[in-house]
Design brief:
Elements (H helix, E strand, L loop, with lengths): L3 H15 L7 E3 L5 E3 L2 E4 L1 E3 H6 L12 E4 L5 E3 L5 H5 L4
Antiparallel strand pairs: 1-4, 2-3, 3-5, 5-6
Length: 90
């Protein structure tokens, strides 16, 4: 089983690789990272929003990054998986 800190670093690298040049700078929302169902759910948002928490600067279509704590597989969540971060279980 992977440690949360290692999984978080995988998510940070994944987000950096996924970032497009025409997007606002993005960062992990470390306050909202959660472990549930064998996954580390790692939300992210714009750096501006995370610095201010001003809802007007929040990006609305950010599906969190999911890191499988057993395999280390990393990917973006999908709309069908919304229940994993809306109603997490231990």
């Amino acid at each position: 089983m992977m440690e949360q800190d290692d999984a978080r670093q995988i998510a940070v690298a994944f987000l950096a690789r996924s970032q497009r040049e025409d997007e606002l700078p993005l960062a992990i929302d470390t306050e909202q990272v959660r472990e549930s169902n064998g996954l580390l759910t790692v939300p992210y948002n714009s750096v501006q929003y995370l610095a201010s928490r001003d809802w007007r600067q929040q990006l609305l279509d950010c599906w969190p990054i999911l890191v499988d704590l057993t395999s280390g597989e990393v990917r973006f969540g999908t709309v069908d998986e919304r229940h994993l971060w809306r109603n997490p279980s231990s």
